[in-house]
Specification:
Elements lengths: L3 H13 L3 H19 L5 H10 L30 H9 L8 H17 L25 H22 L3 H10 L7 H4 L1 H8 L5
Amino acid sequence: MATLKEIASAAYKADKAGNTEDAKKLTNLYFRQLEKQKKQPRTTYQKFQNAETQGLEGVDAFIRTKANLAPGGSTAFGPVQMTGTLVQDMKNKNVIPKELMDYTDRFLEQAKKFNKYGNNKDKNIEGYDSKYDYGGSGDLTSEKDMKDYKSLADVIIKHHEDKANGDELKLINSWRFGPNSNKSVETDDKDYLDRYRENGYD
């Protein structure tokens, strides 16, 4: 199913091309889908996506974080900004199912490249490619990779939800700062909390 952004773009192009009937149908489809989505509560994945990469959709959301001043650097990647450290921890704890292990290993290999090439002032370093630097697209942007990313994220989010035992704030803090952090979005990143809770509907 096409996203609302894709439908709106198609309607605009049809109108510009003079295809009035097609533009009208696409516009009607847009509003039908909009009303349908308004009735569906956001999933936890969608809430984290809104908090992490608000406004980015499709392949545009599959980027390395632009937060290049994070202490020790950051390998956060994709719509919900999973890090290599998080994924490695979930792999070590046998949280990740066998069918996602190939993607997991490639995600971790990409994270190593992020660590190696990100924020490197010497752009002539062997193997340097801007796609591994902050704001870059990385390697995992094929249609299958994007689907596997979502599947992996759902598994890891479910693990965090189980650990939070129904405590929404604990869940959000664990995802935003890590499970061992004493920080809270209520005091340390209120904007993140607001984006997570925004509307409650997609």
